[in-house]
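The freezer alarm interrupted the setup, so I double-checked each line after restarting. Inputs confirmed:
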Amino acid sequence: MAATIPTVRQQAENAKRVAGELARQDSATRDRALLAIARMLIDEADLLREANLRDLARAQATGTPLPLLDRLSLAGDRVSEMAKGLRDIVDLPDPLGEVLRGWTRPNGLRIEQIRVPLGLVGFIYESRPNVTIEATGLCLKSGNALLLRGSSAAWESNLALVALVQRGLESVGLSPDLVQGVLTPERYAVDEMLGLTGLLDVVIPRGGAGLIQRVIQLAKVPVIETGVGNCHVYVDASADAAMATDIIVNSKCQRPGVCNATESLLVHSGRAEDWLPAALGRLGEAGIEIRGDERVRQVFPEAVAATEADWETEYLDRILAVRVVDSLDDALAHISRYGTRHSEAIVTSDYASAERFLAEVDAAAVYVNASTRFTDGGEFGFGAEVGISTQKLHARGPMGLKELTTTKYLVRGNGQVR
Amino acid sequence: MAATIPTVRQQAENAKRVAGELARQDSATRDRALLAIARMLIDEADLLREANLRDLARAQATGTPLPLLDRLSLAGDRVSEMAKGLRDIVDLPDPLGEVLRGWTRPNGLRIEQIRVPLGLVGFIYESRPNVTIEATGLCLKSGNALLLRGSSAAWESNLALVALVQRGLESVGLSPDLVQGVLTPERYAVDEMLGLTGLLDVVIPRGGAGLIQRVIQLAKVPVIETGVGNCHVYVDASADAAMATDIIVNSKCQRPGVCNATESLLVHSGRAEDWLPAALGRLGEAGIEIRGDERVRQVFPEAVAATEADWETEYLDRILAVRVVDSLDDALAHISRYGTRHSEAIVTSDYASAERFLAEVDAAAVYVNASTRFTDGGEFGFGAEVGISTQKLHARGPMGLKELTTTKYLVRGNGQVR
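Predicted 3D structure, all chains:
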C-alpha cells in the first residue's frame, strides 16, 4: 500500500504546529541545527549527487539549454559550498530577542518592542537547488519554520536536500516538520500555497518576472516581491570620464544576468561627443550590443535603433539601451517612468546634482559614483540574503536575517486599566 | 454636458503623479497644509453639516440603527474635534528623513538607510467620516498621497470633506490631486482599487471583519490587515484578586465594541471558587452576558452554556466567554488556537508565569497585569494611529506615522566597482 502524500495545507499545518518550538530555542540550538545539516550535506554528498544526476538527465533529455543545466547542477564543489554557506550563517549575529525600543508611559506601563520570528515562511523558487539550503539556513537562524516549493526541474535534488535537512534537525532533537518541501508535484500546489491565509505568514518568490507576477496576482497571503530590476546609470555633465566608463562597464558587464545589472545608460548631452563614443566602444569590445536613440546613433553609428520597448525591458543579457538627455531633470523623469525602483546610479562631480539624485530618485538603492551591482546582501555587509525586495512594505532592498523577523510589544504593568 | 467622472485608475494616476512633490516638501510646508485644512473645516463647518445631514436623512429613511447613525454624524463638536486632530498631528515629530542606520564598507562605500514616504496610500473604510480627516492628516504628515474610499452611507460627508482638504492644499500651493476620494460610487470601485499594482503602494482597510476579509481575498496590491481582535485575559493561580477583577472588568466593559476589548476570560481552576463567582457577579452587574463552560456554570449557574463558537467569536458586544483551565499550558494552548494575535493579557504574581506568557504568546501586544484596552496608538504614546495591524509584515500593533513610511538606501562612493 502506497503511503498517502500529505496535501500542501497539511504540510503547512504540520510546520505551523512546530514553528513555536523553534522560536523558543536559544540561538545555540538553532546554530547546532545548521551545523548538523552542513555535516549531513557533506556526509551524504554522494546521495545528493545521484538525485541531482537524475534531474540533470531528465533536463538534458528535454533539451534544456546549457546555462540552465549549469544552474541545476550540484557537481564540483557546489555541495561543499552549500555547507559552507550554512556555517557562514551560523557566524552571523542572532536577529532574535533584540529590543528595538522601550519606554515607560505616564501611567507606569513599561512597553518594549522586541524582535521575534515571522512564524511560517513560504519560498517559491526556480531552478537552482542551492536556494533550498540558503532559505533553510536563513529561516532556521531567524527562528522560522519553512515550506519550500522549488522548480520541477530540480525535483529530485530538492527532495534529497530536504530529507537531509530533516535528518539534521532530528539529530539535534528538533522536529523534522520544521522544514518541508511541498510533496504535491502538480502546478496547482503553488496556487494552494498562495491561498493559505492564517498559516503562511509570508511567501517570498525568487525567480523570473513571470513567477513573481503570477505570485502577486494569485496570492491571498502576504508576499515580499523580489528582484525585477530595470536599473539605470546616468552620466551627468560633470562626470569624471574614466570613472563613468568604469562604472557603466562594471554595472553592465560584470554579471549581466542578475537583477542589479544596469539595463539603460542615460548621458547628458554635454558628454555625447567627448565621452560617449569611447565608452560605447569599450562596451562593444566587451560584447555588449548597444541600442541607442537618434542622438546616440549620430555619435555612435554602430548602435541599433532603440524603440520604446528598449526603455522598458530588463534584458538580463549583454544588451544596453542608451539615451542622450538634456538635463538632470530629463534623466530623473526617464528613471521615474521606466525604472522598477531597484537600483539607480548617477556619475557626477557636482554636489547639487548628487544630492538631488539621492533625494528624488525613488528606488531601493540610489548610488552616487558607484556601480549598481552593489545592491546585494553580501556587498552591503549583511552576510547572506533572502533576495532583493523591490516593494515598499516590510523590507526594501537586500533582505538579510532581520527582514525574516517581525516584532511584538511586551507590556508590563501592575494593574493598569483605562 | 455633464463632466466625465474620472475612473479609479485615473484618480490613482493623478495622485501618483504628484506624490513625489509632497515627498520633497519640508516638514514646515506639510504642517502648513494640515493647519490650512483644519481652518477650512472650521470655516466651512456649516457646509459639512449640510452634507452630513443629507447622509443622515438617507440613512434614517432606510432604517439604519441608532448606533450607526451616531457614528455617521458630524453634529456637536465633531467638526472641531477633527480640526483639533489635525493640529495634534502637526505637533508630532516629522517621521521623514531619519537616518535609521549608516555604515562604511571596507571598499569605502558609505551606506545610509533613511526613512521616506511610501508613496500612494489607499484607505478603504466604513461609516465614520472622521476617518477621512484622520487618514489625510497622517498621510500628508508622512509625505504620502492618498486615495480614499469611504462607505456609501457617508458619501456626501466624505465628498464635502475631501473638497475642503483639496481647497486647503491649494491654499498653501500644493496640488489638490494629492488627496482624492474615489468618485465612482459603484461597489466595483473597491475591486478596481485593489488591482492597481504599481500605483498603490499599500491599501489599509478599516472596518469590520467582512471588509477586511474581502480586501485580503481580492487585493493584488500590498495590504496591511487591521483590527480583528479575539482577545483573552488569563487569570493565573497566583493572581491578585482585586487586580484581576479590575482588569477583566476594564478589558470587557470600558468599550466593548472595539478590537482591543477582551472577548474571553480564562481562569486557573485554583481560582474557580475563591475569585470567579464574585468577578462574574461584578461583570453581570455591568450588564455583561456570561457564557461559560461546564466548570464555570458549576460555580456561577447564571452563565449561559458556551459552545465552540463562543471561543471563536469576536463579539464586539456586552458578552464574555469564560473557561476554567487547569494550567498555564492549557491557557496558552487555548489562546494559540482561538486568538487572533491581537492583544492577550495574563494576571499573575508569579515571575515565571509572567515571563513564559510574554515569551510564548504570539500576538501584537502581550500584557502582564494590565488591560488589553491599552493596544492603541494614543495609549502607546504614538499620538495618533492609522489602525492596529494584526499581520506580521511591515507593521504589527498600533500603527503611527512611522508605519506609513518605508526606507531607501543612499550609497555614496568615489568610483567603486565590483
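Quick read of the result. Chain B has two domains: 8-225+396-412, 231-378.
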